[in-house]
Design brief:
The chain is built from ten helices and 13 strands. The protein is of the alpha/beta class and 329 residues long. It has one domain: TIM Barrel (Alpha-Beta Barrel), CATH 3.20.20. Strand 11, helix 6 and strand 12 form a beta-alpha-beta unit. The protein is globular. The protein starts with a strand and ends with a helix.
């Protein structure tokens, strides 16, 4: 496993970081708590020392699972990344809309990042994670009802108190990052990026490179689409959000699989799976520091982690990118 320093900090994360959204079950149909714990622990054994979670993932479930998985381990050998700013237990802030929790009960989600809420959320996350500090604390989405400066004044206070080490953002554009950074140092931006979702390359990536801000790419395998294991007619379980996404129509799956077929020889050359090749290509892109990869069981985690050792020759990176432009413009 390779490791990279994030922005202007001494925080080093495993180049493939465990993404714990699916582990929390919410929007993924369900979760098997024991399998999720084993998945995280398998990653740690493979050198995947960084784990990204959030309170909203299962309304605390994912953070609790992460806390159980790392219990009794050397805390200074593990990097815990979590988030704030998405609430299901208040009616304040920027309304996202209705959802259901893991028990099938109706809940309403709000983006809320007022100062008192940030402080409260941090305390709750620390309890669920069973730790006294968070390595990277990230706002999950912008809350339009709260000034960014107010939010990050609270984050700066948490850094001063030693409850968090560094501040990051998620899903922010360059103007939002600049406002946050005017109040508190920001070392990273976690944002969606994959072979089939490259919109950030135009403005966000150049801005982050110029300002030494790390990019943590989430959904690099496009929620499983880029593994090559899906087929037209794919059936998703109840509560799985992918069923309604345009990326998972029969036509989209067929076109993506046709592209993946063209790069199979490169995967064979390196003796890796298509998923591992996709992760390797992702972290080889300019400005992309880390790729977050989710897993539901230990075997998936081990496969993802081993992509952290992959060194792809530039000519093969270029060939993959050319095929992408040709087949999935």
């Amino acid at each position: 496993m390779k490791y990279r320093k994030i922005g202007k900090s001494d925080l080093q994360l495993s180049i493939i970081t465990f993404g714990a959204w699916a582990a929390g079950g919410w929007m993924w149909g369900s979760t098997d708590r024991n399998e999720a714990i084993k998945a995280i622990q398998a990653g740690l054994e493979e050198g995947m020392t960084s784990i990204d979670t959030a309170p909203i993932y299962g309304q605390g479930t994912s953070e609790e699972i992460v806390g159980e998985a790392i219990k009794g381990l050397s805390r200074d050998k593990i990097q815990i990344l979590t988030k704030f700013g998405m609430r299901w237990d208040t009616d304040q802030g920027d309304l996202v809309g209705p959802s259901k929790n893991n028990q099938g009960q109706d809940i309403t989600i709000y983006k809320y990042a007022a100062k008192d809420s940030v402080i409260y959320e941090c305390e709750q996350s620390l309890k669920r994670l069973g730790t006294d500090y968070i390595d990277l604390y990230q706002i999950h989405w912008n809350d339009k009802t709260t000034a960014i400066e107010e939010t990050f004044e609270a984050v700066a206070r948490l850094i001063e108190q030693g409850k968090i080490r560094y501040a990051g953002v998620c899903n922010y554009d360059k103007e939002q990052i600049a406002r946050a950074a005017s109040v508190c140092p920001v070392i990273s931006n976690q944002i969606p990026y994959s072979m089939v979702n490259r919109g950030i390359e135009k403005e966000t990536v150049p801005y982050c490179i110029a300002n030494d801000i790390g990019i943590l790419a989430y959904s690099p395998m496009e929620r499983g689409l880029l593994t090559g294991k899906m087929k037209p007619g794919q059936q998703f379980g109840a509560g799985d959000h992918r069923a309604n996404l345009p990326s998972f129509t029969d036509d989209s799956i067929a076109r993506t699989n046709a592209f993946l077929k063209t790069i199979e020889p490169i995967a064979d050359k390196y003796d890796v799976t298509l998923g591992q090749l996709v992760l390797g290509w992702t972290v080889a892109q300019p400005g992309i520091t880390i790729a977050l990869a989710g897993a539901r069981n230990a075997s998936q985690t081990i496969s993802n982690a081993r992509a952290g050792d992959l060194e792809i020759e530039q000519q093969d990176i270029d060939t993959i990118t050319k095929e992408l432009h040709t087949m999935l413009p």
